[in-house]
Amino acid sequence: MTPRVLTVLGATGTIGVNTLDVVARHPGRFDVFALTGATQVDRMVEQCRLHRPRVAVMTEQAAADAVRARLAEAGIGTEVRAGADALIDVSTAPEVDTVMAAIVGAAGLPATLAAARAGKRILLANKETLVVSGQLFMDAVAASGAELLPIDSEHNAIFQALPRDFRGDFQAAGVKALWLTASGGPFRTLSAEAIAAATPAQAVAHPNWVMGKKISVDSASLMNKGLEVIEARWLFNARPNQIRVVVHPQSIVHSMVEYADGSVIAQMGTPDMRTPIAYALGFPERIDAGVSALELLGRQLTFEAPDTTRFPCLQLAFDALTAGGNAAAVLNAANEVAVARFLDGAVPFSAIARSIAHALDRLAGGVADTLDDLLESDRQARYVAGKYLERLT
Ligand code: NAD
Ligand code: MG
């Protein structure tokens, strides 16, 4: 078998590390072309030692210099590059057939979109790309013939539960609705007052999943589910009223598809991102992921409605989806700024939803025809949300 030639964007992050864990279980099946990171020098050096990529990219110049020096010392011939442009080069290089898009935030958009335009097989973890530029991104995928495999566990579950030849026509496929499950996060049972006073340490302590800090805070606010609703809209061509959210605290059912005949097809598994990652890496084959078997005996699976009063971010995301245009880009950018300020300890948890609502009030309804329009909305939303949060500190 000729190996698949792989670029891993965001290799040093949680998804990147899990991706390389699966890759290492299948010697000869994958050829790692490039690994990218931002600042984590030690981890990148270690990954280069193990996977011997042709190129390593660190977006920060100082980190790139440090990785280059360390690799030279160790006699490892990986070429080290710095800067965001290098992310695009390694995502579009002709040798590369598969790109794992696992940078966090809108920072991942340019390289992920470039991979789509270049017709690559894209394993999409970076949901923010679809939230910011859904229509544009899906158009690019269609135009180039790129192949899109969702990594987000819910979307990967839905992908597995849909007919293999599904092309976005709910009627033709007899699909009634997509059911996204949500764990409810660490604040599921807390009062509104307790949530408002929550600390960063509480917010990143997710009950079922180990994830990067930003997505962990998003899970605590339910913004993660909101972003996933928008992600599902674009990935599967769903209307907002065809997407339902149900809280399932055990994170065993990863999501479901409801059909016209009353069937509901769910994908289940131990909560471990290596399952969706392995599914996409091996697609259409099933390959070992190193994941422990699902133990259902003695388990209770429960389902409850999400509470958009205690978790207003979920409602804000539905509102932004319905509003269309630049609203989702504004929502995403304001959220990124607010989460970063919250993690710094500068603003309370409740400021996240308030600053997003403020940015949407000020900026939604702007033009969103081109990538430049969307990036301009992203920039303005960061500014407006930042100013709003400054007034709170
Ligand atoms: P993480 O914070 O652990 O890792 C982020 C990666 O992006 C790192 O490699 C980091 O170096 C890189 N990065 C950060 N800022 C960058 C910048 N400005 N430019 C270039 N690279 C940059 O995040 P994660 O948890 O691995 O999540 C990555 C993406 O996958 C996110 O979009 C997240 O929503 C999505 N996702 C994650 C999980 C999960 O279980 N962790 C599940 C579903 C979806
Ligand atoms: Mg998810």
Layout of SSEs?
Blueprint: E1 4-9, H1 14-24, E2 30-37, H2 41-51, E3 55-58, H3 61-74, E4 79-82, H4 84-92, E5 98-101, H5 109-117, E6 121-124, H6 127-144, E7 147-150, H7 153-161, H8 170-173, E8 175-182, H9 192-196, H10 200-203, H11 213-221, H12 223-236, E9 243-247, E10 253-259, E11 264-268, H13 274-282, H14 312-323, H15 327-343, H16 350-363, H17 371-392
Helix pairs in contact: 1-13, 2-3, 4-5, 5-6, 6-12, 6-15, 11-15, 12-14, 14-16, 15-16, 15-17, 16-17
The structure holds nicotinamide-adenine-dinucleotide and magnesium ion.
Task: Characterise this structure.
It is a single chain. By secondary structure, this protein is α/β, with parallel strands linked by helices. Among the domains are: 147 residues, NAD(P)-binding Rossmann-like Domain (Rossmann fold, 3-Layer(aba) Sandwich), CATH 3.40.50; 70 residues, RNA polymerase sigma factor, region 2, helix turn helix motif (Rna Polymerase Sigma Factor, Chain: A, Orthogonal Bundle), CATH 1.10.1740. It is 49% helix and 15% strand. The protein has 17 helices and eleven strands. The strands form two sheets. Strands 4-3-2-1-5-6-7 form a seven-stranded parallel sheet, with helices on both faces. Strands 9-8-10-11 form a four-stranded mixed sheet. Helix 1 crosses helix 13, helix 12 runs parallel beside helix 14 and helix 16 packs across helix 17. The mean pLDDT is 97. The chain binds nicotinamide-adenine-dinucleotide (NAD) and magnesium ion.
